[in-house]
Write a structure and sequence with these properties.
The chain contains four helices and no strands. With 123 residues, the protein is mostly helical.
Length: 123
């Protein structure tokens, strides 16, 4: 029960700013004509952020002590589960805009996590 409450609190705090009806930034520069074009563009941007996130994660893992490494590993695995579940919520919305919302959710959350992990090395 406590774990569920923590996950729910995290969802409220980490929810992306993109909602159906908002003007869609779609990853800044993804101005396709069709939904598939926009989604593919946002997914490509997500892949770039994913590479940055993974590089920052690997760097943090190399530089941390074993006790902290295990905690970071656990946190990263749970974060990935949360991101995927959170963005699936957007994907389950109505209309084709739901696909854009879900793609933007993945990009937004992956970018935020990459920046967070990159900041680990600065503290």
């Amino acid at each position: 029960m406590m774990k569920w409450m923590i996950v729910m609190a995290a969802m409220v705090l980490a929810a992306p700013a993109t909602h159906a009806g908002d003007k869609h930034d779609a990853g800044a520069g993804c101005d396709g004509v069709s939904t598939p074009e926009i989604v593919n563009c946002v997914m490509a941007k997500t892949a770039q952020w994913d590479k940055r996130m993974n590089a920052a994660y690997q760097k943090a893992m190399k530089e941390d002590e074993p006790k902290r490494q295990e905690q970071l590993r656990t946190a990263q695995r749970l974060w990935i589960q949360f991101r995927d579940a959170n963005c699936l919520y957007f994907d389950m919305g109505e209309g084709t805009i739901a696909r854009i919302d879900a793609a933007e959710c993945m990009r937004n959350m992956t970018e935020a996590r990459a920046r967070e992990l990159e900041d680990f090395g600065q503290h």
